[in-house]
């Protein structure tokens, strides 16, 4: 029989009591249930449980996947300040030293069942990746994963990313005060770190919609090859290259990095691509890029990193990200990335963290999506638009709370006599950056 307090009160009070008992503390945010009842401390954000299906989804698929399905379907929503709500949820669910005990979880089940009712949950909402077969990070499976994320219509991405069509962390400060300026500053920073010169060959691995190769060819006079696994990205990139009059200096290919063999290149950029590689394949990735560089050539690897697990537990894919956003995506601590690059033969010469820059970038993307919400929904589906809003806002909070980071690693393929081609003052590229208004 349920303790009496669990069965009393409004739907919101009963949900809050159950969750409070499960988590061992009172909820630090406002909650509204399907009957209009509310409970919890006042705040700028409210978690809305729109119907009993939200509870059914969480009961039958506990953890992040059940929560994600409820959000994508619209059974679970947020009103007011989404970021503040996510900050409070993050501190409650992902930064607690003590996770709910099995006993507490089992005690909560009868109360949740009583609230949810006897029906089974509805089918998972669309856009979820299911029934994947075979090993992760094979050529076929990587191609399918990239297609799921990127082949959803270039116009949708343009609404979110803005005219720059750059899908990675921007570089704020100095004269960069808008998203477009900050993305241009990031591309130029990478070009300076790679010390690009006229006539050199650049390979951009995971070139997206072609922004990096366009900037490098137009501003630095290089000959560039951009590779992607997305047919829609390649089509858009080729169109942009032709419109810029740079088709004689830029080639866009639909090609896996494991199938690229026409080196040597003077420089390689990999911007937001290595998260798709996978831990088991990372040394192969690094070795392949090393082989494609001439001696003395440089690699700029721009990659999201997770914090290392203090107990060295095996890495688990985030259920929401894996099912709805980046299938098979994997994050590694930056120390492991550096170690694998060096094991492959690279000499790592510089590492720069841009964690706060990515939080600012994501907030701009969320703003773009929210300001163009009806059009975004019409270009894809409401479910996918909801996935993107939650994914980007939650990622911004994760960067702000230092749960994840983003790093640019500059590495070189040394010459036979150990030469690196780098100046004695390695960070010479910073001399060309404008003053930071925060200083």
TrEMBL record:
Ranges where the Polyketide synthase-like methyltransferase domain occurs: 156-414
Gene3D superfamilies documented for this protein: Vaccinia Virus protein VP39 (3.40.50.150)
InterPro entries found in the cross-reference section: CFA/CMAS, CMAS, MeTfrase_dom, SAM-dependent_MTases_sf
SUPFAM superfamilies: S-adenosyl-L-methionine-dependent methyltransferases
Keyword set includes Methyltransferase: yes
Origin superkingdom: Bacteria
Lipid metabolism recorded as keyword: yes
Pfam family, one: CMAS
UniProt keyword list: Lipid metabolism, Methyltransferase, S-adenosyl-L-methionine, Transferase
Residue segments, region Disordered: 115-138
PANTHER family according to UniProt: CYCLOPROPANE-FATTY-ACYL-PHOSPHOLIPID SYNTHASE
Family named by the database record: Belongs to the CFA/CMAS family.
Name of the molecule in the record: Cyclopropane-fatty-acyl-phospholipid synthase family protein
Organism whose genome encodes this protein: Streptomyces sodiiphilus
